[in-house]
Each structure stands twice: as structure tokens, then as C-alpha cells.
Design brief:
- The complex is a heterodimer of chains A (111) and B (118).
- Chain A contains no helices and 11 strands.
- With 111 residues, chain A is mainly beta.
- In chain A, the strands form 2 sheets. In chain A, strands 2, 4, 5, 9, 10 and 11 form a 6-stranded mixed β-sheet that branches.
- In chain B, 37% of the residues are buried.
- Helices cover 0% and strands 51% of the residues of chain B.
- With 118 residues, chain B is mostly beta strands.
- Chain B is built from no helices and 11 strands.
- Chain B is globular.
- The N and C termini of chain B lie far apart (37 Å).
- In chain B, the strands form 2 sheets. In chain B, strands 2, 4, 5, 6, 9, 10 and 11 form a 7-stranded mixed β-sheet that branches.
- The chains are: A mainly beta (111), B mainly beta (118).
């Protein structure tokens, strides 16, 4: 079963606006990762945040992690049309590195 | 950076045939690879963990005899969908974990294989 639940399921914004999506999970984790997937394509790794970290930045991306609430958020600032994609969170909870993916958020950025 | 190659990227075949999908780590040795399945507009579901030189570990609900996994070398894992039927049509994605991997590092994903069974 899926570990992560994401909301919203879909998000439509205009270029320049910020996009925020949230991920909740059920069990303790080693790390939480965010991926982007363009339609019909493979996954692009965005950010990995470890369980002892609370916030991480990469360019226009900001990820937070609250282990007490078992939740994470991904913020994309100053969005661009090229950010249009599906975004998935994935949790790593065991020693093998198996990932459990959330349901995903479909983001559409209109020019 | 590390690259994982999946082949073929797209395959269409008739119902009843078997289809083999390859996952190769191009510039590192992968002791462990993972196979995921993704239905349209849905998330990725882990199918199995493939370990070099040993039997794959399948997730609950995944038929071992239907989805044969072989990890005969440190750079290649194969997924064979046997006697494929239309309900097996899906997007299959592999990922690889290098030997020096730790929980602080992301895995490396292939670009996926779109399987369409007529």
C-alpha cells in the first residue's frame, strides 16, 4: 500500500506564482524524497531530506519535513510553464531503500 | 552522474506473448534494483526488489510467476512479463541502488517502459 498521501491532487497556477503541495506518511522514515514526472516520462529526482533535517532548499525548491506530524511540503517559487508536471513524494523506511510513493500532485502552470 | 538505462522504452505486442524489459546501470554496479509499475494518472507501486545473485523479493499481491525478475549481473536486471494480457498494460520503471548507497542518497531511475498489450 502507498505510504504517502499528497494534496492537492491537482494544482493550476499562473507563471510567477508559487506552488505548494503537501505529503503525509504513516511510519517512521530514513528520508523523504520528492520527484517530478513529465507526462509519459521517467522520474527526475528533486530533493532528498533526511529524517533529522527540517528544511532544505535547491534553487526555486523548498522542502520542509515535520516528523512529529509525519508530513512534508514542497514549495516551488516563481513557477514557470516548464514546471508543469506531476510531483511525487516518496518515503524510504527500511534498510533496503525501498520507496513508497504518494499519490502525486499534478501541477499545471499556465503562461 | 549515474545513469540507469531501460530498454525498450515502448513495446506493443499481442496478448499471450512474453515481454522482457531490461534495466542497466551504465556507470556503476548495482547490487539492488527495484521494479515499479504505474497505471495511467496513478502513482508508482513497488513490484519487487531485485538482488544480484539471488531471488527477487516480491511485494504482496504481485504474481511471481507472472513477473519474472532476473538479476544475473551487477549491471543488469530484467523483468519478463509472461503471457501478457491487456490488463498488464502499464508503465514499468526500474531504479538502481549502487553498492555504496546509504539512506542519505537517492536511487537512480530509468526512463521507464511503456507496455501496451493488444
Amino acid at each position: 500500500s502507498q505510504q504517502g498521501e499528497e494534496d492537492p491532487q491537482a494544482l493550476s497556477i499562473q507563471e510567477g506564482e508559487n506552488a505548494t503541495m503537501n505529503c503525509s506518511y504513516k511510519t517512521s522514515i530514513n528520508n523523504l524524497q520528492w520527484y517530478r514526472q513529465n507526462s509519459g516520462r521517467g522520474l527526475v529526482h528533486l530533493i532528498l531530506i533526511r529524517s533529522n533535517e527540517r528544511e532544505k532548499h535547491s534553487g526555486r525548491l523548498r522542502v520542509t519535513l515535520d516528523t512529529s506530524k509525519k508530513s512534508s511540503s514542497l514549495l516551488i517559487t516563481a513557477s514557470r510553464a516548464a514546471d508543469t508536471a506531476s510531483y511525487f513524494c516518496a518515503t524510504d523506511s527500511d534498510s533496503w531503500g525501498k520507496l513508497q510513493f504518494g499519490a502525486g500532485t499534478q501541477v499545471v502552470v499556465t503562461p | 552522474g549515474a545513469v540507469v538505462s531501460q530498454h525498450p522504452s515502448w513495446v506493443i505486442c499481442k496478448s499471450g506473448t512474453s515481454v522482457k524489459i531490461e534495466c542497466r546501470s551504465l556507470d556503476f554496479q548495482a547490487t539492488t534494483m527495484f521494479w515499479y509499475r504505474q497505471f495511467p494518472k496513478q502513482s508508482l507501486m513497488l513490484m519487487a526488489t531485485s538482488n544480484e545473485g539471488s531471488k527477487a523479493t516480491y511485494e504482496q499481491g504481485v504474481e511471481k510467476d507472472k513477473f519474472l525478475i532476473n538479476h544475473a549481473s551487477l549491471t543488469l536486471s530484467t523483468l519478463t512479463v509472461t503471457s501478457a494480457h491487456p490488463e498488464d498494460s502499464s508503465f514499468y520503471i526500474c531504479s538502481a541502488r549502487p553498492p555504496s548507497w546509504s539512506s542519505r542518497q537517492p536511487q537512480h531511475f530509468g526512463d521507464g517502459t511503456r507496455l501496451s498489450i493488444l
